[in-house]
Queue: 3 jobs
Job 1
Amino acid sequence: MKKAISIFLALIMVFALFACAKKTEAPPASTPTAAPPAEPPAGGGDAPAPAAPGGSGGADAGLHVGYWDDPVDHYARDTYKIAYYSFFSGSFVDSFYIALQKTEKKLNIKVDFITANSDPEKFINTLELMANYDGVLLDHDANTEKRTWDVIQDIGVPWIAFSTPFMDGPDASHNRWPTVILDGKVVGDQAVSWLCENYQNYWGDIDPAKIGMINLTITTVGMMYDRGYGAEQAWLRYFPNNVYVEGDMAGQQITPETSYNMISAYVSSHPEVEYWFINTIMMLFPAGAARAVETLGIDDKVLITCEESITAIEEWDSGYRGSWCSAVGIAEELYAVPGAAGIVALIDGRATPETLWGDTITGQYGTDYAVYPLDTKVITYDNYKQYFEDINTKYFG
């Protein structure tokens, strides 16, 4: 656990910079909350499922282009030079690049990784050099978004917003360019729906009225707000009258120690709750939450989940079998494969920014450009290794 914490403390500010925008309204932090519209989704813990390629929705419904399985001879042309250009650097960016390199053989591309090492001026100045490439997968910084947008549009090369979107409109809900990002509302819903449907496997046939939920979130960071909101909505579908506590880390130090202190305080202030779900929207929170429940001596009456999986995997690799029972599995290939296939389709001219992944447009982020629906699922200690093996086999044999 110490290794995971030391690696990812340095990434906290990076994730904050990934924000789409500050939200003007946050879900209420109170107990109990009002009831939602009634029934849970038919898909259960994997719902709401992202729109599948070939599905319905949007002005370009039925247009299946920009995918790994496009019926195209990629070797009937010269090799494309693709830039993966990132404002950021670090192990998580390196992992994206490794996954992108795995797409080179099938798609007949060569991917170069360029980073500005979090230097805003260097990022903008180097961005102009992207004109030397056939296409660009772009990870920008929210603080220089306007300048980045102007420069990349002036360059005129095909590009995709890779893991960092360009959003505007009310609550930053309108997508302005094809992008591959984690849909926060979907993964938040997945994580908590799974707990709601599987808690009996851990606790048996308990009285569900004795279950409460703590949702550790950051309401001022758009991407993180969406995860917390999706988690809250899932909880309300299943347990609308039970205790719900929102732990908002906005304005606080984003550390495992903060989550430790918050969980300790919330649990202590609700002695009427016998069992707890704890949802954590990013990978640094669950370690502190797990330590807190261990200290309180209620480890066997708490189930912790997370909308990210890197630190969970490290814990499970070490043999950990505590209250931190699940996470949304995030493999870099889920980003790299559609990103690489999509940029090739744009360079080929088989797709335009408006038609790329057109059959996935559902309107949640507008109908102008697609937000590629990453096919995530909840993983546990028992299935996480097989999950990542299956993803690798699916795309690379």
Note: The chain has 14 helices and 14 strands.
Job 2
Amino acid sequence: MLHPASLLVVLVLAAASLEACCVNPFIHTDTDVAPDAPGSAARETGGTLEESRPAVQLGDRGIDAPGSGFDIRLLRVQPGVHLGTEQVCDVVAVGRLEPLELGAQEAPRTAYGPGITHRMSIQCTSTTGESWADLAFDVTRAARASEVQVGTRIRVRLARADGGFFDYPIVDFVAVVGPAPGRPSSEPSRSSGTALPAAFDLRAVQTDPGLVGSSQQCAVSHVGDIDILDAGDARRRNYPAGVQNRMTIRCRHAAGEAWADLVFMPVQARAALDVRRGQTIPVTIVARGGGFYDYPVLQYAGN
């Protein structure tokens, strides 16, 4: 029979062993995926997440009027304006319809509203912008999911700015409106063969701390998705207080390109829709690192 003191030692060792074997290795770990890493949203969708053009909206013509559909990115840069409203999406890409089963999906089941039973990824286009969304169906509308096809215009209710698959905004299916209007021929070209300008070499901040706080020009060669930030995101990063949105960009210089984390204050957020490849934008250098993927942090400095 074990002495009480020996038994106590055994119990302590067993508890320590149990704790070591069962601890979640991802707690307190930055699990952000690099933009071009296998399994990232950009790789899985063939680079279609690149936000390369600004948004043009329907304006006073009415929700079902001919013309441009709604740019879902507005839900992230102006969430207080658009959450809960109904808008039209002109569909240019459709994913697989999937049932929502607790614990079986990447996005938490609780991110969706009550009664939602199915979801699919869709891409919506406006005259000058494209954006992805997570289209949710309740039990009464799931049977109509097959009607959501490329080339159709649908009406959706804007439910959440993020939280869907790939952290897409969540939009609830309302109805199929009909065929989507044709894309205008004046749509800007995305040709990768277009010559790009060069501007400030962002690598210089690593050897010259005095550049922090300075204003520079970034010649944009890549634009990632627009993210909406919460307080937790802001605390983890070297962001100025009050930041609302961010995106991953590349700045072209004479010798190549450099990655950066571009952030926007609420009053600047609408300008995030206008940042596109081939544009030269004014930025303020906020930090030499500490952004997403530990990139330098730049703040948009335009009007």
Note: DSSP finds five helices and twelve strands in the chain.
Job 3
Amino acid sequence: MHRTKLFILLFWTSLLAGCWSSSAEYAGIKLPQTTDSKVTFQEEGVPPSCNAFAHLLMNSKMHSTGKDIASAMHKEAEDKGANLVLVGISREMPDEELQENKFDYYGPEYAYSFQKTWLGWKFGFDEWDEAGSLTNLGVDSWGNGNITYDNSLIIQAVFLKCDQAL
């Protein structure tokens, strides 16, 4: 009887501990890792052979450079199997003091043809709406180690797997 109660107590403790965990485990579509992912800032830059498999918001750590942000995004994309990243708009998060980058995923449940099915940036609105002003994270600052963002940023992105070489 005592063992049964102990087992039940341990079971519920383990189960509930996962509910308050500060680091969520990625549960989306994961493809074989890639190397040398590319980035585009325009939807028109996505080739017809690309399938979208992850919608996400990246929260950058404070005092990141354009190079820090690009490196973190590319590493995350390649770990999940993307060879192309579509980067959308970014906003400042002046009330956040992140010490580590954070990636929040919003589906999809299955990979889809980007050119045929993409409906726009329709995910993560709760988090997005609480952010501050727009930032200038783009072609000129992406990968630039001389540009520093004092505040954390929230950055829209889509991970894609493309059949043809980019």
Note: Residues 2-19 form the longest helix (18 residues).
